[in-house]
Fold:
Amino acid sequence: MAWEKERIDQNIYSQGEVEEWVYSTCNICSIGCGCYIGVKDDQIVGIKGNGDHPINRGRLGPKGENQWHANNAPDRLLTPMIRDDKGELQAASWDEAMSLIARKAKESIEEKGNNSVSIYSTGQGFLEDYYTTAKIGRAGLQTHLLDANTRLCTATTEFCLLQSFGADGAPASFDDIDETDTLILFGHNPAETGTVFFERVMDRKKRTGKPYLIVIDPRETLTAKEADLHLQLKPASNVPLFNGIIRQLIKNGQIDKEFVEKYTVGYEKMKSSVEEWTVEKTAEATGISESDILTAIDVIGETSSLVTTTLQGVFQSAEATTACVAINNMHLIRGLIGKPGSGPLHMAGQPSSSANRTAGGVGTYPAHRNPMNPLHIQQMAELWNLNEEDLPAGPEKGIEDIIGLIEEDKIGLFWNIGTNPLVSLPNRKRVQKALSKTFVVVQDPFLTETSSVADVMLPVAMWGEKEGTMENADRTINLLRKAVEPPNNVKSDFDILLDFAKRMEFKDRDGNPLIQYSTTEECFEEFKKVSKGRPCDMTGMTYEKLQKLNGMRWPAPTEDSEGTTRLYSDFNFHTKVDDAQTYGKDQFTGRAFTREEFEDIGAEGKAILHPTVHLPAYEQPTDEYPMWLTTGRLVWHWHTRTKTGRSPMLHMAAQHGYVEVNKKDAERLNIIEGEVVRVTSPRGEIEVPARIGDAVQEGLLFVPFHFGNLDKKESANEMTVDYVDPLSKQPTFKQAACRLEKIRKTHEADSEDTIESIARQYGLSRNELLAANRKPSPYELQMGEKVEIPLSVINTPIPTYMPYRRSL
Ligand SMILES: Nc1nc2c(c(=O)[nH]1)N[C@H]1C(S)=C(S)[C@@H](COP(=O)(O)OP(=O)(O)OC[C@H]3O[C@@H](n4cnc5c(=O)[nH]c(N)nc54)[C@H](O)[C@@H]3O)O[C@H]1N2
Ligand SMILES: Nc1nc2c(c(=O)[nH]1)N[C@H]1C(S)=C(S)[C@@H](COP(=O)(O)OP(=O)(O)OC[C@H]3O[C@@H](n4cnc5c(=O)[nH]c(N)nc54)[C@H](O)[C@@H]3O)O[C@H]1N2
Ligand code: SF4
Ligand SMILES: [Mo]
Structure:
């Protein structure tokens, strides 16, 4: 059982009562917590958790609870804008903006050919937006330059699942976490990045002592502090660690031979790829003691159920896909998959990044179809009433490939929907230069850093102002109802896409409009037909049922189905050649295998054990750049802060960038807490206050990537490396070489960041603002430990960990 009891978290404007609570889902992270949006006078005035939702039983985290402030922000973009001859963005009508975009698309296709329009979307929209993007992109524009920030986020989830099991979809679900004896959190810090999920784990652990918790992270995170075993490995040593573990499990005979025999192929090759990884060698490569490694092996070898989550410490690290494949291998040789409490749970990050993969808005064709398989293209052509030759085949391009194509002048229109690449892509200077070269459309509720390179801005409706569905990290499809109308003159992503399709006059083979639905619900009904018979079959879902059951996990293949808790409980994998979503890729080069090569593997419904040979990180510390840089998240902020930076409480809690430094490194360089220091990589530098402690290991720096203001020297992605994993094409945000320097300079605080000035922006008095942000129940990020932030932080202009106003 997930939660012992419900707890309804609520956050509303104190001065306003709520007239209506509208059914919705949190639009922040991939946990997918159920919520209700509070409405009064057609305005969002608050949020509360949905006590019946199995994922959260009413709980919300700090970002979930404060997300609605962004809807009411005084600086919402309220008109389309077009860049004029002088280089200024000027207000324009929808007709002017949309006809300009349609003209640019046509010109680009005429001058540069079909694959010259790129749509770069998001993991924060709705399944219906993604499916429409897929249809417009593939069938209308005939481009396969469809990608999304999901490439930065969960591409590795997809590709490791494709390699091992033939199709996307995390085998285990959150319910398995409630049942498992052992939980490994691998490169995953949910105490900060999935707070309700972590509470769910800790809720059970405090009650029952289970699961045994192994955390694998080079930092001693809040999550690691709760672990039974923290494996504090060196950066970029994920594959050595699991090669060592797998080798020893085999050596100890702690494997399920019958399972391996019956349900897998590739055992011998896999086995020889880990042969060299003795415990001693593993300890040396990872920096973890032999005894801790042996403890981990003991637990993994003996446990009767096991769930492993992976997230950015793996996906954005060196050898991303290989490390995740090693996790799949470990589950397969132990026979711990498809059974209650067992299976790999490769995570998602954004609230609907999985939905974009499922709907075909990135990479593969809709409903897990293989773009290399003529049969799948033929199915899509039938479903969309097109001729096969009208649909582009071939492997997908990732965003870094697309940036390269822009640099080569091969792209005439880059349409950016729901993402802020000037802050979130690696090696910012390169991105900035590339995007300045081509015609860029930015579709966002706000002016962002990326607006600086936009030729057209389109203002969009946000969460709460539109209807649709999202897929979370464990295949749950959740519904979001529209609570309020968007601001005047602002449209939803979905409506903008439909408008574009109309202007482009996309037709099917009978001359009828390519897109015939006009509401998201009709679109969902069409997607259901597309999903029929595929791994993500949604036949049994309707909007009404999704609301009644509080979400359903795919597959739901029959009308009366209520969804599927875990995949592969029959040990039949999606590796039959015409079922598979892929023919697989070569581990080192990323080259796509041919149909024949895939057939030669002989999987035919069995899972594939791939070899996991170790390759060192692309960039490593040198004499000039002697330290490791890693980047990631803190609990208060969401990515590039366009939402959380507009929530007074969250903004006040963490206003500026910083760097986490180990005590010994600080001592060596004579750096004191709060002092502004310089961090330099081969690509760029930042100057931010130092936070000193034990959390990061010696020789490693951690910089949150949330702070990306173009005028401030605090953006992590000025420094990161744009090398990508050859299989998933996901960038290596977690490792770069860098140098730390003392510069003895004071950091001027932004004098506008006072509680009074923020209150003024919202037209509130100071006390009203404080009341608006007061939370009835304290955040219980960790059971028993109350982490109270709001008032102490707001009342203290200088949060303890950022004493940047101190002059030295
Ligand atoms: N507060 C907050 N929550 C979020 C988000 C947010 O922006 N803010 N974003 C959401 C999204 S989109 C995502 S993708 C998730 C990401 O969620 P997480 O993956 O949990 O977050 P990160 O901080 O990116 O990275 C996780 C950990 O990887 C560790 N790490 C670094 N290098 C290595 C390595 O070589 N090996 C291992 N094993 N670990 C390493 C880091 O120390 C870090 O603690 O969070 C989601 N939730
Ligand atoms: N150094 C470093 N870089 C990273 C990471 C890291 O760990 N380290 N993590 C990476 C990961 S995992 C991720 S997911 C990315 C996230 O990076 P981004 O996706 O670039 O970050 P967001 O701030 O979430 O951008 C979402 C944008 O969508 C807008 N938006 C909000 N609602 C809507 C809507 O309904 N419609 C539209 N059209 N727009 C909307 C927001 O205002 C915002 O501008 O960052 C990546 N970059
Ligand atoms: S855990 Fe994620 S989905 Fe749940 S409330 Fe927090 S941000 Fe929202
Ligand atoms: Mo992400």
Summary: Residues 122-125, 149, 152-153, 312, 316, 349-350, 417-421, 423-424, 443-446, 448, 460, 462, 493, 631-632, 639-640, 642, 705, 716-717, 720, 733 surround MGD (ligand 2) (CB under 6 Å). The longest strand covers residues 685-693. The mean pLDDT is 91. The CA atoms of residues 557 and 566 lie 14 Å apart.
